[in-house]
Target: Oxidoreductase
Amino acid sequence: MTTVQSPPAPPTATRPRVVARTGLYAVLAVNAAVVAYFFAEAGFASNALIVIGRLFGLYGALVMAFQLVLVARLPWLDRRIGMDRLTSWHRWTGFALLWTLLAHVVFISFGYADGAGVGPVSELVDLAETTEGVLRAVVAFGIILVVGAVSARYARRRLAYETWHFIHLYTYVAVVLAFSHQVAVGTTFTASAAATAYWYALWGVALGSVALGRLVLPLWRNQRHQFQVSAVVPESDNVVSVHVTGRDLDRLGAQAGQFFLWRFLTKDRWWQANPFSLSAAPDGRTLRLTAKAVGDGSAGLRHLKVGTRVFAEGPYGAFTTLHRRRTESLLIAGGVGVTPIRALLEDIEGHAIVVYRVGTDRDAVLYDELRDLAVAKGAELHLVTGPPVPDRLAPHELIRLVPDIADRDVFLCGPPPMMNAVLRTLGDLGVPKPQIHFERFSLAG
Model:
């Protein structure tokens, strides 16, 4: 068979992830400066505790607005940073929000209590009963405490995703209550029409981003493309591929390595949205996902009927060739994590080496496709089998397979333990971090 070698792609001049991250930091810094300006312009109370408490409240609300932008699923940010990293940042800023608002409540309560000569708890109760908007703020803070508690790692692991997600939705109630409290009684806003207009604009952008990314764009895309199942192909006893077709898929903008949240509109599945990567590079006519049966959702895919309507949210993810830094690549897959790797191999330019790690030969999903594709593209393919211990991808083993590993982009996808082990190995081998590309797709749901 004649091999076809793609021409090498030049290294990317700019790093899209760095550009996007810097842009986010810059936007946050500018808004922090604007908040400080309007706060200072409104003047300071005589009680230093009240001053500090008000400032914490303003910055807590700013962090809350920033959180909304992080999970708005805006395409420009998602393609450059990735949903997994944006979700992780959202989680950590959530804890920052919790402590900031706690400081706001404590300083305000002690500040007003000092002037009234009563205890802070009594003063907080009195403010809630007599001052407009304070009761709404107390309720909002209580909701945020509950959401923060269920988002802690211990609780999150013990809650079903649907339960956690339902509780998390109450954050939007807290947002509305906190916003109305601030514009009603906040000294910064009651003293300045310009500050009030800025605050409305800030929250309009934050809430508008959520509405655009999580509601308007998915509805518009599904109305435009009319997704439906065109074929269901069993790949093995517990792995199935689902082919999805639709209108104008060449305008969808999907890339190899990305994933969708798939919702198959049957009586028993319409309410479930599952993240599955594309297992073939989009060709403008069909999208393909391949999944292993690990739960009721994925196990039921093999029973889908041709013609079933599909509601697909996406494409999502930064696990694409957009972030390449080198002309040659190493693609490392573990188990069913081969699906985005197989799609990337189809799309990637330059010489590639593929390392596929599985327990046994029978676990090598899509291996025949991967082998044929590697031959056609002039790529090297290594199937690594065996139990997790000893580590078949330890530094000495990986450098034997890929001697020039430090000069390649590395794309990695697989089970979390395998990914963590390989990431440590890449660090030990001196592979620069900008050349390491991975996403933890479990966060996408």
User: Anything to note?
Assistant: Residues 25 and 321 are 24 Å apart (CA to CA). Residues 1-10 have pLDDT under 50 and may be disordered. The longest strand covers residues 228-234. The two ends are 42 Å apart (CA to CA).
